[in-house]
Design a protein that fits this description.
229 residues, mainly alpha, Cytochrome Bc1 Complex, Chain D, domain 2, 2 domains, 10 helices, 59% helix, binds heme C, metal ion binding, electron transfer activity, metal-binding, iron
Amino acid sequence: MSTDKNRKELLRKLSRNLMVSVPMMTVVAVAGFNASSGPGLGLIPSAEAAQGEAEGEAKGEAEGAAKGEGEAESRAEGEAEGRAEGEGEAEGKAEGEAEGEAEGEGVSAKLKKAVRRPEGYTPYQGNVADLRARGEKLFNDTSLSSNGLACATCHANGAGYNATFKNEYPHAVAMGKRDFGMDMVYLDEMVQICMVAPMAAEPLEWGSEELAALTEYSRVQQKEFIDKQ
Ligand code: HEC
């Protein structure tokens, strides 16, 4: 499934989803992320690859900007144009990333392992209301990532989720399968996947209060997501 078409479709879908509720920069960041996690490309497995990616990104941005020239001026002129612009930039970025990514080889075995529940794992136990409150703060905290994103950058108001989010955990999630080779993911594993992939950060400590808080808050998100359907 490592086709260019596939990747473009994903980009298009994501930029469409997000266009409505988040600023342009986010779309660029998300598109960039999605491109980098596209089939056959994978995520940043190491610092060296990260550098390669940064260079690729810079180049992609320049290309994207060139393509989007003129469109940038009409940024505020309605959703249709905003969308076209997003796609132009996204594609420029995808190209750049693909180049930068050539050095990396997908998600490393280490990261694949790191997002899976460890053996004998006991989640942190705490007061649910407290965990939710803490989780909401963390969800909006950009310092959790290495790229300036917060969970809420992508997921504010129920954005950025696919239909699988409605299912009871553990369940199959496209990103988990595609990039981490996981047939099923638990909710806390999904939090770790988003920490490691779109947030480009270290996974949270298993058994930590932070992980429990984000997991618990994600449950709140899930309920809102289901209720909205
Ligand atoms: C750059 C954008 C981005 C950021 C930032 C991000 N995510 Fe996600 N997240 C995604 C995408 C894309 C999906 C859909 C994955 C799929 O369905 O294959 C997703 C899916 C999810 C899901 C639902 C998966 C399912 O269908 O069951 C959860 C839960 C989630 N993210 C939690 C988080 C948390 C918690 C954070 C912060 C630590 C976070 N995300 C940060 C892009 C992001």
